[in-house]
What we know:
Keywords: Hydrolase. By secondary structure, the protein is an alpha/beta fold.
Amino acid sequence: MGHVHIIRDFPSPLEGRSRTVRIYTPDAYDSAPEGHRFPVLYMLDGQNVFAHPESAVYETWCANLTLEHLVREGSIEPWLLVAVDSTHNRLAEYSPWDEPRSNIRAQAEPYIRFLLDSLKPYVDRVYRTRQGPQWTGVMGSSLGGLMALYLGRHYPDLFGRIGGLSPSVMWGWNRLFSEWTDHTQRWSRIYLDAGAEEIIDPVGYTMYYGDATRDFYHHLKRLGYADHELHLVLDPAGHHHELDWQRRLPFAMHWLLR
Length: 258
């Protein structure tokens, strides 16, 4: 089994704070030849990502166990997993735009600069990473899924593999629909999922995840994304919970990272 390396005080200058970053090096990383380089998947809400004693006290995605299982069965090659913890200010830092229905003011830009200007250069400098959008992905759930899609839309030269699990595409009056107006014309693979009847009301209005995710999938199809670039899973029993994302993660990783 590989290793989870935890950096608890990674500086984020524009945010005026430090962040906790968890980096999983797969089992193959230490045994691979020195010149071998690995693709990288960035994951949001890092405290919920790994099966590890210092992860969140509740259920996690167990992404490290899923990755190694898929590698052993030959479905995917080994990937580095870089997971960034969210904070008490999660709703704002994962908001690319305001959500007036919930009185949330957008604070995503400083967080995005942290990912692009501080964290990714560090990972590429310290670890043997493979460059290019085909070998760099980003994945998240809920508002983290919205952020993953936002990064894929606005930085397609960096992130080519995008995973949105129960993504909050309805945030800010469906603004992602109006911002994603054409095919990026870059190499891309986009995975979307949600519970078919998944509904929550955490911030003052009802969020219909199944309907919104289905609508966004069809929106991207109309923009020209082909079946090999875009995939949708609607889980008949899916809820808005880590255990549901954990259950869907093996297929999500297999389709996205193969």
